[in-house]
UniProtKB/TrEMBL annotation:
This is non-specific serine/threonine protein kinase. It is an enzyme of class 2 (transferase). Residues 156-253 form the Wall-associated receptor kinase C-terminal domain. Pfam families: GUB_WAK_bind, WAK_assoc. It catalyses: L-seryl-[protein] + ATP = O-phospho-L-seryl-[protein] + ADP + H(+); L-threonyl-[protein] + ATP = O-phospho-L-threonyl-[protein] + ADP + H(+). The keyword Calcium does not apply. Keywords: Glycoprotein, Membrane, Signal, Transmembrane, Transmembrane helix. Its EC number is 2.7.11.1. InterPro entries: WAK_assoc_C, WAK_GUB. Residues 36-99 form the Wall-associated receptor kinase galacturonan-binding domain. It is found in: Membrane.
Length: 268
């Protein structure tokens, strides 16, 4: 008997078996790990396009913006520089209701951070308006009258200084009020739900009104180019993506690896 033939066939067989089983293992495992639906606080059964909370990144839409965290029972998402609490996820309208975590317990957080959504998968959908907050403002000039669109003053205290701020609805740049507000040391843009900005009607609003409105949150619509994934989910599959390439992938529960796109792409 040829002494080298048997070992080479043996190794070929072993490598083939390894490829088949490892593929099956990876494939089955992806379906299982992506079918995990974590909950956090009042938000139940979190699924695609989100990941985090034990759902691997490969189980979400290929954009790091869809990562969620659960922080002591509060579902959180980071969009650009700011962290938001997620109050509601509506899958069918693809709307996320969020509120700024740092404005949850006061109008004077540190550091001061703008809410921005450029280059993120989340966008304002016309249901919020930006409120401008001005911090550390000089005394109002005697000949300047503030309109009801400028709030009553609020105080921010640090260990060494107390400062005065205002929040305003609308853009006053190029007007005497805008010139005055431009002298304030800092400004922040904060979206509020359109249903809450009635707080500017009638009397000039007080800081408590803004805190209340900030806690109620506002809507953001998410955009993902993933029609194909909806078909996958509707047919009982789990959608995700291939890390690195960002290609969407449908993990099917019962399919054999021999017919899956995963197998075709990576093993053949
Ligand atoms: C949203 O859709 C996914 C995928 O169909 C589903 O698993 C999940 O339970 C739904 N709900 C939430 C809150 O994500
Ligand atoms: C999701 O949004 C749709 C369309 O706006 C609405 O009809 C539906 O009631 C919402 N679902 C939940 C659970 O709020
Ligand atoms: C809000 O989102 C819905 C669904 O994505 C869209 O049909 C509608 O035109 C959007 N409204 C605005 C004002 O952008
Ligand atoms: C208010 O008074 C200042 C000087 O104290 C002057 O520079 C400014 O133009 C005045 N503004 C208005 C709106 O009259
Ligand atoms: C800031 O204001 C508080 C109360 O309004 C006062 O007790 C404190 O002494 C003030 N701090 C400074 C540095 O003025
Ligand atoms: C927020 O944005 C405004 C307008 O772009 C800018 O003037 C301001 O400095 C920004 N504030 C912070 C804290 O980054
Ligand atoms: C959406 O994805 C498809 C492939 O999955 C691609 O051909 C198309 O260009 C994408 N569209 C946008 C707007 O990115
Ligand atoms: C997996 O599901 C997708 C979407 O339903 C389907 O197009 C594909 O053929 C399925 N793959 C296998 C191997 O069954």
């Amino acid at each position: 008997m040829n002494p080298s033939l048997l070992p080479s066939k043996f190794w070929l067989l072993l490598v083939s078996l390894f490829l088949i089983f490892s593929t099956k293992y990876v494939f089955g495992n992806s379906f299982l790990s992506c079918s995990y639906r974590p909950s956090c606080g009042s938000i139940q059964e979190i699924g695609y396009p989100f990941w985090g909370l034990g759902r691997p990144e490969s189980c979400g839409y290929p954009d790091p913006g869809f990562e969620l965290h659960c922080n002591r029972g509060v579902l959180e998402i980071r969009i650009k520089d700011a962290t938001y609490g997620v109050l509601e996820i509506n899958n069918s309208s693809e709307i996320l209701t969020v509120s700024r975590i740092d404005y949850g317990d006061g109008i004077c957080p540190t550091p001061l951070i703008n809410s921005t959504f450029q280059n993120s998968p989340f966008q304002d959908n016309g249901s919020s308006i930006p409120i401008w907050l001005y911090y550390d403002c000089p005394t109002v000039p005697e000949n300047l009258t503030l309109t009801p669109l400028v709030s009553n003053p609020f105080e921010c205290s640090t260990s060494d200084r107390n400062t005065t701020g205002y929040y305003v609805k609308g853009d006053f740049r190029g007007t005497p009020i805008g010139d005055y507000l431009g002298l304030c040391a800092d400004s922040v843009i904060l979206p509020l739900s359109i249903t809450e900005v009635g707080l500017f009607e009638g009397n000039r609003p007080d800081p408590e009104a803004l805190e209340e409105a900030a806690r109620l949150g506002f809507d953001l619509v998410w955009s993902a180019n993933d029609t194909w994934c909806h078909e996958c989910l509707n047919e009982g599959g789990e959608c995700g993506h291939i890390l690195g390439t960002g290609d969407l992938i449908c993990y099917n529960s019962t399919s054999s690896p021999g017919t899956s796109s995963f197998y075709l792409r990576y093993v053949c």
